[in-house]
Design goal:
By secondary structure, the chain is α+β, with helices and mostly antiparallel strands. The chain has four helices and five strands, in the order αααββαβββ.
Length: 84
């Protein structure tokens, strides 16, 4: 399995400990892993979130049970969740 998504986590600025946990859980959601490898998350047909553009203001948290990604905006403190 490709581990290219590690570069996304690095750009977001998470710790290596978090990175390891994230890498393990992405295997349960192939579509999520595919999007992260491309550096983008597709919200719907009209909205594409580019992780590389948002890397300095967002952090990622992954919920294994629901295959959901939470994007936390450090500036506005708004929570955005995307399901796969």
């Amino acid at each position: 399995m490709s581990h290219n998504h590690n570069s996304v986590i690095d750009k977001v600025g998470e710790t290596s400990d978090y990175n390891s946990k994230f890498s393990c859980t992405t295997s349960t959601c192939p579509s999520l892993n595919e999007y992260l490898t491309k550096g983008k998350v597709i919200l719907n047909e009209e909205n594409v979130i580019d992780l590389y553009d948002w890397a300095k203001t967002l952090k990622l948290a992954y919920l294994k049970e629901s295959c959901r990604v939470y994007f936390i905006d450090q500036l506005s403190q708004h929570n955005f969740s995307f399901s796969f």
